[in-house]
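Hi everyone, sorry if this is the wrong subforum. Our group has a chain we'd like a structural model of before ordering constructs, and none of us has done structure prediction before. Sequence below.
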Amino acid sequence: MRRSGSSVVRNTREARPERAFLIGVDCRARAGASAKGSLTSGARAARESSAGSATSKAPRIPEFSAQESLDELRSLASSAGAEIAGELLQRRDRLDPATLIGKGKLQELAGAAASVSADLLLFDHDLTASQQRNIENVVHTRVIDRTQLILDIFARHARTREGQLQVELAQLEYLLPRLAGRGVEMSQLGGGIGTRGPGETQLETDRRKIYRRIRHVKEQIENVRRIRAQQRQRRESVPVATVALVGYTNAGKSTLFNALTQAAVLASPKMFATLDPTIRAVTLPSRRKVLLSDTVGFIRNLPHTLVSAFRATLEEVQRAALILQVSDASSALSAEQDAQVEKVLQELEAEKKPRLRVRNKIDLLGAVQRDALRDDASTVHVSASKGIGISTLLDRIDQTLEEDRPSRIHLRIPQKEGKALALLEARARIYSRQYKDGLVELEAEAPASLARRLREWVVA
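Answer:
Right subforum, don't worry. Here is the predicted structure as tokens:
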């Protein structure tokens, strides 16, 4: 049951991609929203939940406008393989509880979708089961909300068994409260004697099946988590720090990962191209080794079911010694995207981790903008695809990491100790070397773990 009924492109045998009609809703009822910067209701709800008891003097968190959110939905739809047939952005004072956009606008939408032969409607908003059903009854076209679309993209890109299990769990938990009313075969219970037909039996049967499958998938994910914890424990027994790449989807994390590790991880302009975590070793300028972890990209209003399902994967972020927060320097929405990443890090309780901000894709900026960029103690500007700033980033990681910090040592090692000399050559910076009376006298900068292994030859 990895692929749910929310799939955008139903199967590969179809001659053409499905034509999607996009619908955005700009709800202006909330106080304090300006006409220029009016927000989608989902973005506004996220802002209010994060604001909490914040005072009026607190810095404003950048948010997506309704049009910017609709633009992002367009990118999501393209990543799912859909062809964009049309768009509609409605501005309302409040959301309609029955149809979200109101009966009049719904009739207009039905005509517009039919005129362009749309195969499905994509709402840039989460829909309740009743809203989805009411809209479908009028437009006679499949209706998919934003969460369903993201789940479908995740299902497409999951390659490992672990990734597939995590996506399936998120799909099942999303589907469960939406079973009632999904077609005649699952019709809800009638009101009166003699109306208790097979619909209720079918509904309860489906619920039991889904509950049973959820339990099974959770057990399998727990096994994955246990194995991952054992692997992490073995890694942590050796003093090798983990550095985690995080950032908004399509910020260039996988391209940066490849540039730092010389790996060949899939780097794609499509959103959520990376779902399965990848860990590779990196040698820093001090000759220390660290483990670099590539993680799933974040996005505005990331469905909670996905955050929960991918918690086993995101534990790498929670346990990392350093977080590299990658953002797209060429994007006009860079500040808004960084704010959304910050929210997910808070949910993971990783917001206080040591962090280095990496502004990527500077090759896409104009010459004047690029010349005005300045690195500082917490920010490095790079172009992962062109290799610009990579050595500077490695130096900054080396300076920031406290684990296994290198120090200057003086050693006298017998020439016959070839293994110790080879180890020093591989893992330390050697500044001077002299041969005398069968000994090699060296001045070197070595990680603390290496200095401990060679302590019998260290000269005070």
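For your construct planning: Residues 198-237 form the longest helix (40 residues). The chain has a mean pLDDT of 79.
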